Amino acid sequence: MAAKRNLAAALGRWSAEHRKTAVFGWLVLVVLVMTLGTAAGQVNLTEADYGTGDSGRAERIIEDAGLTEPAGELIYVHSDRLTAGSPRFDQAVADTARAVRATGLADRLRTPDTTHLISADRHSALIQYDVKGDPDTAADRIQPVIDAVRKTGAAHPDVTFGQYGAATGLKAINDSLGEDFARAEYTALPVSLGILLAVFGALVAALLPVALAVTACLGAMGLLALTSHLVPVDGMTNSMMFLMGLAVGVDYCLFYLRRQREERDAGRDNATALRVAAATSGHSVMISGITVCVAMAGMFLSGLTVFEGFAIATIEVVVIAVLGSMTVLPALMAMLGDRIGAGRIPFIGRRRAHRAASAAPRRDRALLRGVLARPGVFALLAAVVLLGLAAPALGMKTEKLGTDKLLPADNQMVKVSRQIAEEFPGSPAPAGVVVKARDITSAEMTRALADFRAKAVASGQTGKSIDVTVHAKENIAEIGVPLAGDGADATSKKALTTLRETLIPETLGKVPGTTALVRGDLAFSVDYNDQLKKSIVPVFAFVLGITFLLMLFSFRSPVIALTSILLNLLSVGAAYGVMTAVFQHGWGASLVGTEGIGAVESWMPLFVFVVLFGLSMDYHVFVVSRIREAYDRGASTRDAIAHGIRSTAGVVTSAGLIMVAVFAVFGTLAMQDFKQLGVGLAVAVLLDATLVRAVLLPSVMLLLGKANWAAPRFLRGAHPAAGTAHAAPAAAPFAPEHATARR
User: Fold this and answer.
1) pLDDT tens digit sequence for 618-653
2) pLDDT beyond 50 at 138
3) Closest to 166 (Cα-Cα) out of 124, 199, 128
4) Largest CA distance in the chain
5) What pLDDT does residue 359 have?
């Protein structure tokens, strides 16, 4: 090895020589950031922050005017035997209304006798009310109403009651999220630790990556709280950041530890082994971390604040994890020395652990021999498998999922929502028209509002119960318009289009100086999808372009950079195909405890693309760095590929297994969007760490031969990714057992 230097090597050496400073500095940094973050508090996104397009502008008008729309609620009253108008049915409605009023939380309560919200068969009716107080906290305060309705239901056995609305729906989601993420966080840690115990066979070596990953996540949470004052974040960002940080943090430490142990097994002393690990695996970790951060930065081009928050959170946790693996990890390894192998687990002997660290399993070696012998055949087979998995993605349909699809089908809230949608079209999620006028109380504006209501009802695209609320001081009117359909189907979308393109322009839009915009769940979903479609090209172009440049200057090879891009695209395509097959079409959906819902969550393709493009580079950079390292030491392309694949098989398989296990935890959650995220990421990482790494990458590189190392004149010179910088004596030239002539 050439005794070159790089930043990772310098940081690793400094940390090993200043152990206490590195370790205590890390602890002080984490505690300080956590303390500051806790004191500052986290700023979450408001309703207006989530929006985009016309619906987002409508939300902003309401927010800027200081108006708070109350959390609207519906109580569904149904009886198979009784009908509205019968004494016992009406008594049940009256008792329910009385119980809800008694909680002191209901405002503007309306019963079916005034709203006429009675189903066609008269077996069902709706009670409407608004939750008093701040709508942002309504979900936290709604429980007394839920209890009151449940108590009333017990007194009327012939009648069933259900509740659905802004507060109860959000409470159901929050309850599901809270339980899910608590279980996920508690599951991911022992699963990761168990895999590391199997990999290293020693308690100390297994605990070290987990401890560093957890402290990195804690520090990142504190930092996220501080930066959220500049860019607000979604409430679930912390939990997602924890699982992402755990996955990458453990992997980065694993790469470092396995290389150090490999060098120790080769006969180097601890200090030299550390310097080699810092200059090789440490450098690969740094390049991988930079790639993840740059890929996540592509989300800033999405035009959606929620994505910006996710990007900032991921970048923060990855930067802290990389910093920890390059500083405090080598410091701890220098302090522990060979005691890092303490706490050896029975039945997992030293020989097994060392063999896993330095050589591929027998099955992998047999596969590699086949790839080396017939690279064209194996490349074709692997490509066919990946393209086959990606095929369903050609028919992918995206949709901003509502509560009825986000929660499991057997959830009581979902059942009530679907019953209301079926019997009272438009009631679960009416569209809201926000009208901003010069004088909202003028005669002209009053006529326009009346004209709008009449034409909307006559169009057949809306329900008859159209509510108008005028805020004279702010010159704003809010109109609640129940849309035809179930609130999300093609009928509702057609009604929304009619509302936006016909009804509003022909009535409200004719008043000079008036702005009339539509908001609501469906309008938000349509605008959200439109914005995502607009952002796909710039985000994809940015991520692909920057990743290509990073790989180009890391490996000084346009061919390797382009190959990296193409292989990653195959992995992403396969993930898209599996998500479409499972969650849109329902193929094998029961295996992950769900059913086909006819669509993929609208933000999923963009998010999965950005995350996977960053994370999959972990393995690619690590493997290609070892291949380039061997080539630079005199090996032929064939021998360098064989050496790189064999020497990284154990660590890449272990790291991939950890990341797959952590992401698979998402697949166990009840929420539909997290199931999709978990399955998509787990499948892609599994394919990338196995089929792509073990078959497609070596096959393609073998077929390309010397072209792998061709570089324009301006890129020629020292190769940084192969920088095995350390102050140890130079290693012997590469000399595999069956070396071939360099070509």
Assistant:
1) 778 888 888 988 888 888 889 999 988 888 887 888
2) yes
3) 128
4) 96
5) 47
Separation CA 219–CA 26 (nearest Å): 10
C-alpha dist (Å) from residue 287 to 8, 291, 296, 319, 593 = 10, 6, 14, 11, 38
CA distances from 688 to 257, 259, 265, 644 (A): 22, 21, 28, 16
Instruction: List Cβ neighbours of 473 (8 Å cut-off, separation of 6 or more).
Output: none
Please give the Cα distance from 715 to 415 (Å, whole number): 62
pLDDT band at 361 (very low <50, low <70, confident <90, very high): low
pLDDT at 221 over 80: yes
- Give which of 263, 234, 394 is closest to 333, Cα–Cα: 263
* CB proximity list for 447: less than 8 A, separation 6 or greater: none
User: How far apart, in whole angstroms, are the C-alpha atoms of residue 110 and residue 619?
Assistant: 60
DSSP 471: E
Q: What is the pLDDT of residue 347?
A: 61
The residues, any chain, with a CB within 8 Å of residue 218's CB and separated by 6 or more, are 30, 34
Measured CA to CA, the distance from residue 194 to residue 203 in angstroms comes to 10
Q: Which residues contact 83 (CB under 8 A, 6 or more apart)?
A: 89, 121, 122, 123
Which residue type sits at 387?
A: L
Q: How far apart are CA 585 and CA 577, in angstroms?
A: 11
pLDDT in tens, 506-526: 999 899 999 999 998 888 888
Q: Which of 648, 691, 685, 689 is nearest to 665 (CA)?
A: 685
Alpha-carbon torsion 669, 670, 674, 676, what sign? positive
Average pLDDT over residues 473-483: 89
Please compute the mean of the pLDDT values over residues 425-442 and round it to a whole number: 80
CA pair distance 193, 212, nearest whole angstrom: 12
Q: Is 443 helix (H, G, I), strand (E, B) or coil?
A: helix
CA distance 640 to 379: 18
Q: What is the DSSP letter of 651?
A: H
Closest by CA position to 716, among listed 556, 549, 553: 556
State the average pLDDT over residues 435-442.
91
Report, as an integer, the average pLDDT of 280-298. 86
User: What is the rounded CA–CA span in Å between residue 696 and residue 704?
Assistant: 12
> How many residues in the chain?
743
DSSP states along 64-87: HTT----EEEEEEEE-SS--BTBH
